[in-house]
Amino acid sequence: MAGWWLRNCALSSLNGDYNFAEANGYGMVWTMSGMNDIIHPTSTRMMLRSTSFST
Fold first, then answer.
1. C-alpha gyration radius of the chain
2. Which of 4, 24, 48, 49: disulfide with 53, CB 3.0–4.6 Å?
3. Backbone φ, ψ for residue 10 (5° rounding)
């Protein structure tokens, strides 16, 4: 699994405007198995780890 910034980063705005009232397609789009869900998170948290981290 990759981070949200891996591809199409020009289309990403993690801390963009929160606009739940309008269903105009703006928001965070989560794509999985060919289906799109538009979500409007009220907060975000970015977590970083070392490249030497092993699971």
1. 14
2. 49
3. -70, -20
